[in-house]
Amino acid sequence: MVECLTVAIGGAVGSVLRYLLGLIPFNESGVFPVNTLIVNIVGALAIGVITAVVARNSGVNDYLILFMQVGVCGGFTTFSTFALETGDLISGGSVWLAILYVFLSVFFGVLAVFLPEIVLR
Asked: 3-class SS at 60?
């Protein structure tokens, strides 16, 4: 039960952070979903940092890992919005923009996860 509460509190923190970051007008035209792209890349970087730190510090509390990785990062990032926005781009006739969005999201998301490990070597 404590684990569920830990994840729930972390998820609430992550969701609020995601909402607040979504308020920043990165893209005034509104055509390309820049906010979601940034949120997901930042979240991937955060989970990469957490994973790299935990790998080097065996004494990290399991509840802190649950809170940060599953809770905060899980609440902060948003695959469902990514999928919805990709579908919206396609149904709006912007197929190439949708392909670019998917490529950028996956490429930079995966790079962001591995970057902290590479830097800390």
From this structure: coil
Residue 38 structure tokens: 């940034």
Task: Specify the pTM.
Answer: 0.90
Summarize pLDDT for 29-48 with one digit per residue, the tens. 778 999 999 999 999 999 99
Q: With contact defined as beta carbons under 8 Å apart, do 32 and 101 qualify?
A: yes
Residue 32 DSSP code: S
Query: What is the rounded distance in angstroms from the CA atom of residue 6 to the CA atom of residue 32?
Result: 34
| Distance separating alpha carbons of residues 107 and 27, to the nearest angstrom | 20
Give the closest residue to 111 by CA, choosing from 41, 16, 20: 41
Return the structure tokens found at 115.
């970057």
Other Cβ atoms less than 10 A from the Cβ of 23: the count is: 7
